Every structure is written in structure tokens, then in C-alpha cells.
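Collaborator request, handled under Task 6.
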Amino acid sequence: MQSVALIDYGSGNLRSAEKALVRAAAGTSQVIVTSDPDTVAAADRVVLPGVGAFAACMQALSERPGLIEAMTQAVQEKGRPFLGVCVGMQLLATRGLEFGETRGLDWIAGDVRRVEPKDPSVKIPHMGWNTLIDPHGPPPIAGVGEAPMYFTHSFAFYPTSEEDVAAWVEHGERFPAAVAKNNVAGVQFHPEKSQSAGIALLARFLEWRP
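C-alpha cells returned to the collaborator:
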């Protein structure tokens, strides 16, 4: 049975994310909530959740001794499939521009910056259900189709190369809703809050063989 490391660094709705992953796995995977570097390095798959500010989440991740190094070993060196969710996706960026400049993991080049709709009547944060535009790339994202997903955020990840964007969403302006590069994928929305469509995405991630 494959192991899935759900990273616990004090950020993210871990309980909901764990329940959603267990449901998606349907007994085929062992979901381990962990911040232990050895467990993460040995995992078959890695999921990084995140809720809150980029800088605070990056600091919390950095303060867990050996955790970023273990993630890097599993994902970048061993090529294990990775999924970042919400701020967990944003941390893939080169830097975040929320409350100053903060360095990210830099696994996908780009910046995280505030969503600034051209229409002043469009409210930020972007909160609620929205349909993805042109979901493509790896199976977890390409299979979404027209199913709406649940968003709640004020900042978005803008990759340097549009080739790394796997889906868009419209909320006063068009911005990336998902990113993907090699064995690394990230979604701005919350699969664990997106009902059956979100569970289906997680199930595809658990079967993904990049």
C-alpha cells in the first residue's frame, strides 16, 4: 500500500484534508499526517496544504527542522508526485509579495501577488464556487472538466511561464487556478471543500504516475 505524507506544519485544515484523502484513497493508500522528515522523505506521495498568509506559512514550514529538505528529497530528487493546496500551492513560487517579499520553495518560477480585479465591484477575497477555465496538463487537473470548485483567497500564484499554468479561473480578472510542472501540481481551490469533484481530483492524484 502506498504512503501519502500530508504535511503538518501548523497551517491548513488538516482534519478535513485528511478525511478527504482517506475517502479518495478508498483503502488503496495510507494517509499519514506528519512533520517527521524521515517519514516525508520515504513517502510515495506528498500533499502540502495551507491556509493564511504566505510569509507565515513559509516561516512555519522553515521552522520544522529538516522538513523542507525531506520534501525536496522526496519530490525533487526521487520524483514522487506532489500536490499543493491553496497556500500550499503558492509556496511553490519563487517568492510571495504579501506583507513584503518572502522567498518560496522556488519549485515553479513565479510570484504570488494580490488579485486585483479591474472591476471595483468584484469583491476580494475570491470566495465561493467557481468553474475552471481550460483545465489541462496532468490527470488530476485535466480531469476536472466543468465541475465547479471552492475557492477562498486574496492572493494568487502567477508563474513566470504560462506553460506551468494548468487551469485558469475568472474573478474580475483571469488568474491561475492550478499549476503543474513534471511531478509537481498545485491547486488554488480546496478539493476537500469541493464535494464529489474535489474527491475525484484527489483520487486522480493518488493514481497519477508522472
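The cover message to the collaborator said: "The first helix runs from residue 14 to 25. The longest strand covers residues 174-181. Please let us know whether this matches your experimental observations."
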